[in-house]
Amino acid sequence: MQLQQQLTDLYPKLNSPHYFSVYPPVCQAVFGVAAWLFPHSERGFIVLLRAVLLGAECITALLLMSLLRAFGQPKHRALWYVLNPLVIVELTGNLHFEALLICGLLAAWWALTRGRWVWSAGALGLAVATKLLPLLVLPFLIRRLGWGAFLGYAAVLSLVVGAFLRRSCPLICSATSAAASTCIFIPSSSTPASTTCSERQATGW
């Protein structure tokens, strides 16, 4: 009942309460796994999300040091990012999935500097499947790779994003069904707060 009351209080405060989600499939997959592992624990859900983002930040730090070394720059400059208060507070602290985006983008750059464009495309695909902003780098890749290699790069990227779209949907639906079976009520603008579990089952909620 306490969690039900929390959800009832928090739901109207969402910036997009009428949407199921505005996040791409990698985010959805992480949310789905967290909901599946911790269907009744808000704390467990948040801890898992934070662990994923912390892991991504650790990989980002390693990639930064490797890239700095490759470009003849001192590795300690990676600390400018790692110890940036805005990064710490907003990404890990406030659970923004740009941490995964940055990790994927740097992994794509790292692989590209080593001539592994297929791996680079896969990493960029993961970044795009997390947030759509990395698509902005595609025009710059045409000049670096040429049209022939770029078309192959774009094909691999599309396959990765498509695979996540295909695989994340059943996972999200499964997690949603599991959450619904707990009879935790999340109100909508057209559904009164007194809606019962039987009414929700009858209406497909």
TrEMBL record:
Gene Ontology molecular function, alphabetical: hexosyltransferase activity
- Cellular component terms (Gene Ontology): plasma membrane
Keyword Transmembrane: yes or no? yes
Does Isomerase show up as a keyword for this record?
A: no
Membrane-spanning residues where?
A: 20-38, 44-68, 80-111, 117-138, 145-165
* Keywords assigned by UniProt, alphabetized: Membrane, Transmembrane, Transmembrane helix
Any idea what this protein is called? Answer: DUF2029 domain-containing protein
Question: In which organism is this protein found?
Answer: Hymenobacter qilianensis
